Amino acid sequence: MNLHEFYIGKAFDAYEYFGAHITKDGVLFRVYAPCAEKIELIGEFNDWDGSEDEMIQDAQSGVFECVQEDAEPGMMYKYRIYQKDGIVLDRFDPYSFGSQVRPDTASIIVDLDQYHFSDSAWIKKRCKNYDLPVNIYEVHAGSWRKNEADEENGWYHYNELARQLIPYIKEMGYTHVEFLPLTEHPADCSWGYQASGYFCPTSRYGTAGELMEMVDLFHKEGIGVIMDFVPVHFISDTYALNKFDGTALYEYADEDKGYSEWGTCNFNYYRGEVRSFLQSSANFWMEKFHFDGIRMDAISNAIYWQGDSSKGINEGALDFIKCMNSGLQKLHPSVMLIAEDSTNFPKVTAPVEYDGLGFDYKWDMGWMNDTLDYFKIHPYDRKFHYHKLSFSMMYFYNEHYLLPFSHDEVVHGKATILQKMNGEYEDKFPQARAMYLYMMAHPGKKLNFMGNEFGQLREWDESREQDWDILKYPLHDAFHCYMIELNRIGQENDAFWHDYDPENFKWLDCHQEERCIYAIKRKGKNRVVLSTLCRKMYQTK
Question: Looking at the domain assignment, is residue 62 inside a domain?
């Protein structure tokens, strides 16, 4: 890594320099803490007594380092930071590759070179799939299924989870799996969205090597792997990044800007060191773990100050996003960059050189809200809201949209996707079938959260596995089989792939308000598909 590039926010490989790195002389530790008075390295190798392991600052660089001869992979460590105000705190390594299982917070020395991937053929043929099927199965690793052998938490290790998930995803006909954040985080209830370790796979599900093996196993079966990435905010806990060296090093000093709506700290994009930290993290998961895409969470909270458009655009954040995406596109031209953005900010998926933000895909939150709102309405009242299902095509070609029914829609009293459908229990299934047919017929790549595919009735709870026993009931089993068949049709017919070519889509009829009928034509190179939807029916030709 070039230190000058790190300071000005141009580095994408800061993890090669900072953190704990195994050398022939022991383990080399480096940490960036420019305003610290003194730093001691503490860990298992010195009985947590840092008096003999004071780290040396390299000139006035802000970089502290030392070599510990007795340190070995698997050992725990922290940085004891003496602040200029006299406060002393033991800190997690921001560039740590491993961590204790919560609630413990020590970093762990990890050798990332121990696992050797065997997915070169997959990487060589990988692409962004603009004109290929993308049907994503969104998963929370800790609650898809529970491991009875783990009596305390019920977690599978990464590689164990892969062996469970792979045959199911292949049976269902999904092309990709997307995991909620796998970066280290202290609270299960945050689902990983309030991170503490940006270079550290959460220890809940095993080691870095086991995560590498998981990705490798998916690739061997032709399944792409995407991970949620949170470049907007981080936990306020004092063992992590918050006031790391006694000052606002990673966050804004102004508390009005420094804290998010979730009580977390907002990253300060005006500091080059922070930019290098974040874009190095994004690159890290692609380079070291071979992820095929990252979905960047809450981009609207970066675009606008605290996510509020009335507070104006955060120009520093925009510049950071453009720089990060431009760099990642050059380093990994076949990897997908996906934005969760609920605003109408323009050119999110336009290339940076054309003044865009440089993402490949953007979640279509407007389509999602309109669609779910429509299917909540009684069928005979839908004529008054008829164009909720046609409006999305008025703006669709402005961006490369992805259609999501995500985890956010099945929590916090919102009800599950099936439960949102109007009517009694039996009435909900034909409407859900019609809705998913409409989703498949509509241009845009697809994403569906776990449990949606078999009509989960209970809202998602990260502490419980999905209600698989519900498949014993005929209506749920039939719906499950329907989703398998629908995904198969979508994957086998190229008419559903060429999403961003206006010639591929045509409304055959979208003016049947009284009868609530919609007719869609999708045209591929090899096949034409006609889809018709009405109040309680579905059919396809």
Answer: no
